[in-house]
UniProtKB/TrEMBL annotation:
A Pfam family that the UniProt record links to this protein: Clathrin_H_link
Coiled coil residues, start to end: 72-154
Official protein name in the record: Translin-associated factor X-interacting protein 1 N-terminal domain-containing protein
InterPro entries per record: ARM-type_fold, Clathrin_H-chain_linker, TSNAXIP1_N
Taxonomic path: Eukaryota, Metazoa, Spiralia, Lophotrochozoa, Mollusca
Occurrences of domain Translin-associated factor X-interacting protein 1 N-terminal (ranges): 33-142
Length: 627
């Protein structure tokens, strides 16, 4: 028991010391350095910033000292709650202070509002008094004005005549006539007529004096209107001169059409030249007038001012032509403005819809061609061509062959086959052989060849149309077209063979026709044509395929032998030359088969010739015996 009492136990667990080793000392030293370093960056008088630094340092201590974390965390929470309570108390104190201040100043504010209300009421009373005074003055002025108008009316109106009773006799009448009632009625009618004439004369010959002022104002208006018309006339004369120069320049351009120049450029150049000549002539006229004023003699007769001379030349001009020239000039100026502003799409549409096609020319197209940049994914030249084709379908005439060819060339360069197909389908182009060859040579793709074939068929150029068939791979359809819709001659088939040689074409020409129909070309002509074109390999392959194929009419022989036997155009020397060529190229089997076919053909020809001679001899003997 004594031992238990000597060593009393505690309910708290003992904590280890804070600094136990060198690492703890280094941590505390680094923490102190961190606090000193951060304090140099902030304002030391600002409690909030200092609080943040120490708060961060305290968090580092809690993270480092694991044994003291519960105690330090509790301490930190107590500190933070205390600081928040202080901040909240400060904010509430400031709020209450402001509210107390406003409540303290409320009586003075109410007093100021009342004082301002009294001042406004006084001003309202003063304004009302002024309004009443002004209203009384207005009424007095109205009364004075009405009295003045009455006085002026009494002055202007003539005084009414008072009829006086006159007992005297009527002048010019005797006493008896004065008592003659019918005579008096006649005299009354005569006097009434005289009175009416006097009233009419008074109204027509004499007018009030106030009308004189009105007539003078009317005269001034007429004079000013006359001056305005004179100025407008001078303006229109100068405008007519410019329009005539522009019309003559446009007509001269349409006659010559120089390259790389639009009609707008020609018109602008002519206007500038005419303006310079007019200025020189005006200077000469002014110098001549100064000499006349100086006493050097009268001016030379027959030399009126340039404007008068130019304007007098327009007297016989047609007004419709002037309006047309004015419209064309405005159209050209609008086009140049759009083009210079870089609005190429709008300029293209404007030029394509120009009246009488003044801008639908190769010169305008060349102007668009000079622009190298692209707008909205295409060149300005293609925009102009598209607008040109679109306008051709809205009432305007189709562009000529040269302009159509340039539009097609532009579409091909841009690889816009779809757009080109639309133009041809909608008949917007003036078709020509040049356009057809341009499309056919652009690409051997079926879509290009189909377009070229359509063009050549419309132009009745059947050779080129069949070539387009063959380039599409439609050999059978092309030969059928050549035989039926466009009857080919011997030279036409040879031309097609030279342009598009192929095994399929050779077979169709020699053996691809129905039974009983003639071949377009004999096999010997086909082979000789291939040899002339230095195409021996194709000729050899064709011969070998024919040898390996049975004839349609006689399966016992090859197609090559049947074709040779049907060939009446090729001579024996030409066949022998072909046999020698095959032997020289070491194709003995092919040469032997060809030689056998030629030998049979020669024997058949000789037999036919002998039979024909024998028949002729028999006919001669029968004729001689009968005679």
């Amino acid at each position: 028991m004594a031992s238990r009492s000597s060593t009393p136990t505690s309910r708290f667990v003992p904590l280890p010391p804070i600094i136990t080793n060198n690492t703890d000392r280094q941590f505390l030293q680094g923490l102190s350095n961190y606090i000193d370093h951060e304090m140099t960056k902030v304002d030391t008088s600002d409690d909030e910033q200092r609080y943040i630094i120490y708060k961060t340092a305290f968090n580092k201590i809690i993270e480092y000292v694991t044994a003291y974390q519960p105690i330090l965390t509790v301490m930190k929470k107590e500190y933070e709650d205390t600081i928040e309570a202080i901040k909240k108390a400060q904010s509430e104190a400031s709020f209450l202070h402001a509210k107390l201040k406003s409540m303290a100043s409320e009586p003075s504010t109410i007093r100021n509002y009342r004082k301002r209300a009294d001042e406004l009421e006084e001003r309202i009373a003063i304004v009302k008094k002024d309004n009443e005074r002004l209203q009384r003055q207005l009424e007095e002025l109205k009364i004075m004005r009405s009295e003045k108008e009455k006085q002026e009316k009494q002055i202007t109106e003539p005084p009414k005549r008072e009829l006086k009773k006159d007992n005297r006799l009527l002048p010019g009448l005797t006493l008896e006539e004065s008592t003659d009632l019918p005579l008096l009625y006649k005299k009354l009618d005569k006097l009434d007529k005289q009175l009416k004439e006097l009233n009419i004369s008074f109204k027509t010959r004499y007018v009030p004096k106030s009308q004189k002022i009105q007539l003078k104002e009317t005269l001034d208006d007429k004079v000013s209107f006359r001056d305005q018309l004179l100025r407008q006339g001078q303006f229109y004369k100068a405008k007519r001169l410019r329009l005539k120069v522009a019309l003559e320049a446009a007509q001269s351009y349409n006659r010559v059409k120089p390259p790389h120049q639009t009609v707008g450029d020609a018109v602008i150049y002519s206007l500038a030249k005419a303006r310079g000549m007019l200025k020189i002539q005006q200077e000469k006229d002014q110098a001549a007038a100064e000499q006349n004023q100086g006493g050097e003699g009268p001016a030379r007769e027959g030399s009126p001012p340039v404007q008068a001379t130019a304007s007098s030349s327009f007297e016989d001009d047609d007004p419709n032509k002037e309006k047309e020239a004015e419209m064309m000039l405005e159209y050209i100026e609008k086009f140049n403005e759009l083009f210079e502003d870089g609005k190429y799409d709008e300029a293209a549409i404007h030029a394509a819809s120009s009246p009488k096609g003044i801008l639908r020319t190769s010169a305008t197209l060349a102007k668009f061609r000079d622009v190298k940049k692209r707008v909205n994914g295409r060149s300005p030249l293609l925009s102009f061509c598209d607008a040109l084709m679109s306008s051709a379908g809205t009432g305007s005439s189709k562009p000529n062959a040269h302009l159509s060819a340039e539009c097609v060339e532009c579409a091909l360069k841009e690889n816009r086959i779809d757009l080109l197909s639309h133009w041809i389908t909608q008949d917007r182009l003036t078709l020509s052989s040049e356009i057809g060859h341009m499309i056919a040579n652009h690409s051997h793709k079926p879509n290009c060849q189909a377009l070229a074939q359509n063009i050549f068929t419309r132009l009745h150029q059947y050779r080129d149309a069949v070539v387009c068939y063959l380039r599409q791979g439609r050999v059978q359809a092309g030969i059928e077209f050549a035989r039926n819709k466009a009857p080919f001659r011997h030279d036409d088939y040879i031309h097609v063979l030279c342009v598009c040689p192929s095994l399929q074409l050779l077979h169709v020409l020699v053996e691809g026709q129905p039974r009983g129909s003639s071949r377009p070309l004999p096999v010997g002509v086909v082979i000789q044509t291939l040899l002339q074109e230095d195409n021996f390999e194709l000729a050899l392959q064709f011969i070998q395929e024919l040898q390996n194929t049975s004839s349609i009419d006689d399966p016992q022989i090859s197609a090559f032998q049947a074709a040779v036997l049907d060939d009446t155009k090729t001579t024996e020397e030409e066949w022998n030359g072909l046999v020698s060529l095959l032997q020289d190229q070491d194709y003995e089997e092919t040469a032997l088969s060809l030689l056998a076919s030629v030998t049979v053909l020669t024997a058949m020809k000789k037999a036919l010739h002998t039979s024909k001679d024998f028949d002729e001899l028999e006919q001669t003997e029968e004729h001689s015996q009968g005679s």
